[in-house]
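Progress against Task 2.4 (sequence-to-structure conversion) is shown through the following example record, which the project officer requested during the mid-term review.
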Amino acid sequence: MNGAIREVREETGLIVKDIIYKGLEEFCDPYTQLRYMVFNYLATSFEGTLLENPPEGELLWVNKDDALKLPMQSWFARRFPLFFQEGTFELSYVWDEKIRETLDKTERYYSLAPAQQR
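C-alpha cells generated for the chain above:
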C-alpha cells in the first residue's frame, strides 16, 4: 500500500488517505514466463492540491459517473466499475504476447455476508 501512496503523490501531488484494498489483476504469459500483477486500491480522502505540471499528463477532476465517457485503455474501463462495488475482486488472465490474445481467464468477486460486515 505504501507504494500506491507514493505513486499517487509523485504523479498528482496528493497525499491519499482512507485507503481500501479493492483487488488484484494479473497477467501471465506461459511462453515468456512473465507475470504482471496490479494491486488496486481506492482512496476515499486526500490532502494537498494537484500538481500544475504533472509527469503523467494533464490532471482534472471528473464525476465518477462521467469517467467512463472519457478515453481510457480497455483494460482500465473494464476494471473501473469494480472500485465502487462492495467487496474485492481477483482477475487473472493467461496472455499470449506473440498473438496478443487472452488464452484463459478467471474472475472472482468477494463480498462479506451481512453478518460479517463491519
